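Bumping with the actual sequence this time:
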Amino acid sequence: MADSILQHQLEKLAAERYPLHMPGHKRHIAPAPGLGCYAWDMTEIDGADDLHEADGILAAAMARTAALYGARRCWYLVGGSTVGLLAGIRALAPFGSEVIAARNCHKAVYHAMELGHLTAHYLAPPVDAAFGVYSSVTPAMVEAALTAHPRARCVILTSPTYEGVLSDIASIANVCHMHGVPLLVDEAHGAHYLPFAANYGWQGGAVAAGADLVVQSAHKTLPSLTQTAFLQLNGDLADPDEVERQLDVFETSSPSYPLLVSLDGCTSWLASDGPAAFARWRERLERFSAAVANLQHIKVMCFGRDTLADHPGFFAHDSGKILLQIGADGAAFLRAGGFEPEMVCGPNVLAMTSPCDNAYALDRLADVLHAWDEQNAPTPPAHLLPAPGNAAYTIAEALLRPAREVLLADACGETAAEYIWAYPPGVPLVAPGEKITQEFLDACRALDAAGTRLHHSVGKNGQCIAVL
């Protein structure tokens, strides 16, 4: 692993003076075995810079990352992509304004709309019939929405999605900019879309495509600690001063220096070892695709015999995501074979890969899938996501009104007063203010029958829902 310049600077600073300051371990007592970073765990003392007014070593570290990605600015985030989405949306969309948002955004986007009392005009991507996941948002959909809602302050999209579906961000950014509207892309699952990654099959990253704000979870697919992320800025439509002000609102005033160092170390690793690691990653994925081509019962999205052409609603697919249609029983078989999947939701099981995987992990995964396939594994029925019901209120309006609980079975036609989602992926199946449809209720029953637990933001009884 390449050295972090920031870590060396903190180690030097730690050796110079005794700490009459936080944190309480005083760089003397390890909080737990193996946490060697306590020796340079800092606070915002002289020389250590301040994440919220960075002009020293942290500013230099973030500039190194911005240069690697080709962004105008980069902010390190220690609250995950969630804090980047909260701050970025608030910076682009003033309180009470309108936004255009893809309906398949993560719950953090909905929380930003809730806190900002925003009126959302949704883009509902078509659902892929084979796997029951959202397809791409198209430039035509964005053009139509911006024409219909000229007061919208920004467009918010997710690309790649949790399952690896990408939209044509370059064309969508051009559409947005023709209307003078900034584009924010939740690229939490696409931090690996760097300029050099295009040489190894990962084209279409939101930074290179010209999105105005891009939120990326470094920890999801790159070697950085959990809870670390980047917020990248391009162009002139997003005010960097307002972004910083909102980060000051939503992000902790006591950021973890070990987390910040992991982002700088990740940047150093990408610059020095990234191209070779991405080349090996691509080779492993291609070997896996060839190995699963003769599966008889298991479907693997965009691998083996399943190609991008089989999914006409997809602009592109991130091959780092392996979506298996094997259901809960197949997931249990994977666990018995030594693998823990990222997600089990209805019939779909997601395996996430990264450039840091063991050289033969995907070969072993293919072997386990063949063993499951040879048992004449039943193909679970595809689960189609419900179209959202019409919104009677904004999210904030709905949450401010009195609510009551009713049985889900009796809720058709009511107005939701809470979110319900499967986590992961954390995309609401219903949001506060939306009409509850029979299609939504059918989807809940199908997911429950498949063993998928649904999360309620208000009610804790899974058989009930809070309504207005």
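The tokens above came from a reply further down the thread. The first helix runs from residue 5 to 16.
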